[in-house]
Write a structure and sequence with these properties.
It is a single chain. The chain has 20 helices and 10 strands. It is of the alpha+beta class.
Length: 471
């Protein structure tokens, strides 16, 4: 049941903006209000997280968090935290991300057509793991050449030694080990999971180049109940839509790239490449695609610190318009982490695609969408309340009075040691506790005697109705 609500939440947000839900108020406090549509958009980011499941209790907790976030964000704006140039860059890059999302819904999504047999086939793939090897080539001509060699008797392992500079892949015959269908690009996954064991595929195009796939073995999961199948089917349908959407978006952008005029600034490119070298060593996981922002806080901070002084430099001119290092930094938050992990060139290629889509979306006037505005405001609110929390925690100190109070409360545990003897040992404990307490205390102060009206029935009715439709 939990997986079902995840799917329905996602699909519900792909529908046309609902005017009634936009105006349905689920919380009112002071001069502020939160609508059902705002709740739906923000709650989706919570429920998409691994091992997080929808429940009435979670909805209630999250609404309280939204109320606190709005008050903290308002306070941060009053302190002019929102004028920080780095935050301004993040705000702008997110607004552009919203533009690209809207472009997908208006231009690419209508191309997706899925039949029941497609879902059934994809579901059967989700019940397997496959042990595969591959040869990776940059061009179609190279891939065709190597495929002919395989057809004429060349061994897969011997060609892997030629193809791969990576010693591991070179020595293990291009083995990717055990993989799941959900982890792979659409065409690559469909080719790998349709092949019989021991067979070799014709060249398959992915977003990174061309692959020749060999299936070494497979494992099938045990049979599951009918109810589990129904839940898994809906999740599979979403995964299939996601993968097909990714494929069609890639094809759409590839056609744009063929017509685009891109002029590089090699000096700036080299500077950026050198500054980013060795930064992104965290290995990609299957959960990356579930996150809207692909870099974690430490990676974003490191990226901004490394490139900030270059932010106004032009990396490339695309169709006569400059793409700055600052814009590239913004794109990096949303480029698939796998592309970032593969190196600067891969990340830059994605940034050019995002630049083209953003530019086209602006030309289509998609920035005026109510949904874009709402998503942007929620994101800005989230960033500001996060910065406010950081500022509060940074300001925490533990004075002698705090330490003495803690010492007296725990004196019996110290075997007769004096305050002076324990002072330095208990200081980190007191500081840690004060940091944990400072944000809740500050929120409580902000709320004060403010009247808060919450209408959880609107929220519960909406999500319970989604669940009932599947029974």
């Amino acid at each position: 049941m939990h997986y079902m609500i995840i799917t329905l939440l996602i699909l519900s947000l792909l529908q046309i903006f609902n005017t009634d839900e936009k105006d349905t108020v689920v919380a009112q406090f002071g001069k502020h209000k939160i609508t059902l549509e705002e709740f739906k958009i923000a709650y989706l980011d919570v429920i998409k997280k691994p091992n997080t499941f929808d429940s009435k209790k979670l909805r209630e907790i999250f609404l309280d968090e939204m109320i606190a976030a709005r008050l903290l964000a308002e306070n941060a704006a009053e302190l002019k935290i929102d004028r920080n140039p780095m935050l301004q860059l993040r705000f702008n890059s997110y607004k552009e991300k919203c533009l690209r999302d809207t472009h997908f819904e208006k231009v690419v999504k209508p191309l997706i057509h899925i039949e029941e047999k497609d879902i059934e086939e994809a579901y059967s793939f989700t019940q397997e793991e496959r042990n595969i090897s591959h040869l990776f080539l940059k061009s179609e001509t190279q891939a065709d050449s190597y495929y002919v060699m395989l057809q004429n008797g060349a061994s897969f392992d011997s060609l892997a030694k030629i193809v791969f500079t990576d010693t591991v892949l070179s020595n293990n015959g291009g083995s990717l080990g055990w993989v799941q269908w959900a982890e792979m690009d659409y065409d690559l996954g469909m080719a790998a999971f349709r092949l019989p064991v021991g067979r070799i595929s014709a060249p398959v195009k992915s977003q990174f180049g061309y692959h020749i796939v060999k299936v070494n073995d497979f494992k099938k999961k045990p049979l599951i109940t009918r109810q589990e199948y129904i839940i898994a089917r809906e999740k599979t349908k979403y995964q299939l839509e996601y993968k097909l959407g990714d494929k069609y978006a890639f094809d759409y952008i590839e056609n744009m790239l063929k017509q685009a005029k891109v002029t590089l600034n090699p000096d700036v490119m080299e500077l950026v490449d050198n500054k980013l070298a060795e930064q992104f060593k965290r290995k990609p996981t299957q959960y990356d695609q579930m996150s809207e922002i692909q870099l974690d806080d430490s990676e974003i901070n490191k990226l901004e610190t490394s490139l900030w002084d270059l932010r106004n430099e032009t990396m490339a001119t695309i169709n006569g318009k400059p793409m700055t290092v600052g814009e590239f930094m913004g794109f990096m938050n949303y480029i698939p982490y796998k592309a970032i992990y593969n190196g600067f060139k891969s990340a830059f290629d994605y940034s050019v695609r995002d630049f083209l889509i953003t530019d086209e979306a602006r030309g289509l006037g998609l920035g005026s969408s109510e949904k874009v505005k709402m998503k942007f405001n929620l994101y800005k609110e989230y960033v500001l309340q996060t910065e406010m929390k950081k500022m509060l925690v940074r300001g925490v100190e533990a004075n002698d009075s705090d330490l003495k109070n803690y010492y007296e409360e725990h004196k019996a545990n110290y075997n007769g040691a004096t305050f002076e003897e324990m002072k330095e040992k208990i200081k980190p404990l007191v500081l840690s506790q004060k940091k944990r307490d400072v944000v809740p205390a500050y929120i409580k102060k902000l709320i004060g005697k403010m009247k808060i009206e919450k209408h959880m029935d609107f929220i519960h009715d909406y999500y319970d109705d989604l669940l009932n439709r599947t029974n």
